[in-house]
Amino acid sequence: MPSESEAHTPKGSILARTALGAFWMVAWRMATRLLGLVSTLILVRLLVPEDFGLIALAASFATALNVALTLGVEEQIIRARAPDRAMYDTGFTLNLLRGVLVGALVWAAAAPAADFFDEARLEPVLLALALSAALSGLANIAVVDFRRDLRFDREFTLNLYPRLAGIAVTIGLAFLVRSHWALVAGIFVNRFGMVVMSYTMHAYRPRLTLVAWRSLAGISAWTWALSMATMVKDRSESLVIGRLLGTTSVGHYAVGVEIATLPATEVVEPICRACMPGFAASHRAEADAGRDNFLRISALLALLTLPAGVGISAVAGPVVALGFGQPWLEAVPVVAILGIAGMLTLFGNVSTALLLAHARLALLMVITIGAGALRLALLLLLTPTLGLTGAALAVGASVLAEHVVLVQRALVLLRLPPPALLARLWRPTLAAGLMAVLLWGTGLGWAPPPGTAGSAALLLAQGAALGALAYALALFALWALSGRPPGAETDLLGLLHRLLGRLTMLRPAQRRSA
User: Fold this and answer.
1) Which of 138, 161, 268, 285 pairs as cysteine with 346 (C-beta 3.0–4.6 A)?
2) Which residue spans traverse the membrane (predicted)?
């Protein structure tokens, strides 16, 4: 089927278009995260940890079923050389059936889940989430064109407005009802907004048919199996913590993970969302382009996220104390541990995007099953004795094992020796290590949580300033001592130069239009 955005696809190399797409994805995450952070800071003062824990538990349960029934039709359309209308319509029909089935399963499981967790309020929340899951199946399948054609500016718009609407509804209702239903309403509005926007932004109107099911069946089967494995791996901690420690601990853990994974969720994941179509395009058109793209993207991400992970871990105490208050201090060890572990996800996520682009779903499923089994075993071993700290250690250890294997398989696929990757990473890694030593030595890193907001703000400001300065100086000193070779530093400087050039060009245009 001809793509609506095909005529407007940006020209240039696949790497350049992927980089532009990554910029839009990061911009989307940053914009929505800023609003999300503001809303969270408001909500933690209007709601109690039990409300967050209840919604986190319900969302984990509903999302697990949704992920378990993921069919991967969008990814298959992205990989296909020339998808036709039959493939799009069949994909829409399969997604609709999946949404209805997920909603029905969540609805049926609402009462048993409430009994299992001994939480009566869980049942009506799950019933509401069941309706929203069924609604999401109505989304227009053709918006996958935005990713296929690397038009992430449109993906930005598609995701932004529903997110804004959901945040506005959540905050407004929180002021009025002061209960967890404000969070439920925000989830529902966000999903409904995505459906509306998908038809507003793309003229394609899907039809109900399964005529092309054979072209999607094989990939869908592997995608479903991978989703099942992912469900066990990613949702096990909430279920174990909820069962062993209660919903309040789930709330503390959820807030800790939210803070600790900021570099991954706000930088790595959106960039990797742009990388998967970019790797697929390279695989279709430029067979050998994947090696250079993989190395350059991994190095640039390392340059940006390694210091962020170290920094978040180092200032976990003041961040939680200042942003969330004394009732949330149990989240501090979760932030400190998973902040370090989260740094490793950049390599595994880029590797996963590459393996998905090459349709290595069976391999990903085996890795995910192994990582999920390891995580569940460590959670059951460490959580009863060490509480939330044990849960964080269990998750961190499983993340390390999983992502080492993912990187190794990606290197094998690209026929790259490990030293080729290490040569791109040693400078940001060493600079981040020096930053960590300095923060530890000065007492500004991994300090006990301050007792007052003023002392927390001062400690946070001092630690952030010293860490950022130390990392920047160490990184560019190492780069200069190495003779300023081509690498992540030159890519970053080139990207900044292009962005400044675009902003400079926009200003005269804005003045003329005014």
Assistant:
1) 268
2) 21-48, 54-73, 94-113, 125-143, 164-188, 208-226, 300-325, 331-356, 363-382, 388-407, 428-447, 459-481
Distance (Å, rounded) from C-alpha 375 to C-alpha 234?
A: 9
Instruction: Answer whether residue 12 shows pLDDT above 50.
Output: no
Q: What is the pLDDT of residues 25-59, one digit of tens each?
A: 666 667 766 776 677 777 766 776 777 777 777 77
Q: Which residues contact 423 (CB under 8 A, 6 or more apart)?
A: none
Residue 267 pLDDT more than 50?
Answer: yes
Which pair of tokens denotes residue 500?
């400044």
CB atoms within 10 A of CB 219: 18
Spatial distance between the Cα atoms of 53 and 3, rounded to a whole number of angstroms = 43
| Separation between Cα atoms, residue 280 and residue 309, nearest integer Å | 29
**Better-predicted residue by pLDDT, 291 or 503:** 291
Token pair 């889940």: residue: 113
Angle of helix 361-414 relative to helix 247-260, nearest 10 degrees? 20
Backbone angles phi, psi at 207, to 5 degrees: -120, 160
Q: Determine the distance from the C-alpha atom of residue 350 to the mean position of all C-alpha atoms in its chain, rounded to a whole number.
A: 12
Cα–Cα distance measured from residue 334 to residue 316, given in angstroms and rounded to the nearest whole number: 9
DSSP-derived secondary structure for 39-92? HHHHHHHHS-HHHHHHHHHHHHHHHHHHHHT---HHHHHHH-SS--HHHHHHHH
pTM: 0.70
Helices (H) and strands (E) in the chain, counts: 20, 0
Tokens of 33: 């995260």
Instruction: Report the alpha-carbon distance of residue 79 to residue 357 in Å, rounded.
Output: 7
CA distance 304 to 95: 36
Cα end-to-end distance, the chain, whole Å: 40
CB 284 within 8 A of CB 365: no
Structure tokens, 194: 């995505």
Distances (CA, A) of 500 to 70, 491, 497, 504: 40, 14, 5, 6
| pLDDT 10s digits, 146-191 | 877 777 778 888 888 888 888 888 888 888 877 788 888 888 888 8
